[in-house]
């Protein structure tokens, strides 16, 4: 974020809140632009190459402008926290409204899923990306990419709605709950998470570290590469391979 002293930022907020001073607004937008870049980079990891980062950035900018317009400094949360929710929410909402995954990609993913199921039934074990790739005469990277894109598309399809209630304005999206869960359903979900944790422990050290840095520490792939001394493309490969290995359990958790 661009450097402003505490006093300078407070003055900008005063001028913006009191009279919507354009210069103050521009200064605040410039300060929080890195939030947009951060969410664009993280979300873009799972998107196909046909989705323009410029388009995603435009969605993020709309979220930042919306956050600036709606933010109430009297509320009990910081602007960067509030803006982060709005930016991420605007990007996901924009992606959800567009059919960004081409039909050919969806068909390819379905074909790969069907092949995985067929091979697993035939071999009575989990199959490797190399085996799936050989069966379909495609590359392993194609297998990783297709499944990752489809998984993210399914996550986006979950029915989410903006939180516009005044008392919940600090959050941007929630998953609609049509009915209360039974105790046994909670127990099943807990078992799935335990299984997911167990499977993560079976990953090698690099794979576990990449998942921890990406999902827990919230570093970008580029930042993870700097930490581990590897290229961004190599980190992306490790991430994709890890997600593939966890695919079955992750799908079980998602469908709960």
TrEMBL record:
Pfam families according to UniProt: Sigma70_r2, Sigma70_r3, Sigma70_r4
Gene expressing this chain: fliA
Record GO terms (molecular function): DNA binding; DNA-directed RNA polymerase activity; sigma factor activity
Protein name per its UniProtKB record: RNA polymerase sigma factor SigD
Protein's GO biological process: DNA-templated transcription initiation
């Amino acid at each position: 974020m661009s450097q402003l002293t505490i006093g300078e930022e407070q003055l900008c907020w005063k001028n913006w809140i009191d009279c919507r001073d354009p210069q103050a607004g521009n200064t605040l937008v410039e300060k929080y632009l890195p939030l947009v870049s951060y969410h664009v980079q993280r979300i873009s990891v799972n998107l196909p190459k046909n989705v323009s980062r410029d388009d995603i950035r435009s969605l993020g900018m709309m979220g930042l402008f919306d956050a600036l317009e709606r933010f109430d400094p009297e509320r009990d949360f910081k602007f960067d926290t509030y803006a982060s929710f709005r930016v991420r929410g605007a990007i996901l909402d924009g992606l959800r409204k567009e059919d960004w995954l081409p039909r050919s990609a969806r068909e390819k993913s379905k074909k790969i899923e069907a092949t995985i199921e067929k091979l697993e039934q035939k071999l009575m074990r989990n199959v490797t990306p190399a085996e799936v790739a050989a069966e379909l005469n495609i590359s392993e990277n194609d297998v990783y990419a297709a499944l990752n894109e489809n998984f993210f598309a399914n996550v986006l399809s979950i029915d989410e709605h903006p939180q516009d209630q005044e008392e919940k304005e600090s959050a941007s999206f929630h998953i609609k709950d049509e009915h209360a869960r039974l105790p046994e359903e909670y127990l099943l979900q807990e078992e799935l998470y335990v299984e997911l944790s167990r499977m993560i422990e079976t990953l090698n050290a690099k794979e576990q570290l990449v998942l921890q840095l990406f999902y827990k520490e919230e570093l970008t792939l580029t930042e993870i590469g700097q930490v581990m001394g590897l290229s961004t493309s190599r980190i992306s490969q490790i991430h994709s391979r890890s997600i593939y290995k966890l695919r079955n359990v992750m799908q079980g958790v998602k469908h709960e």
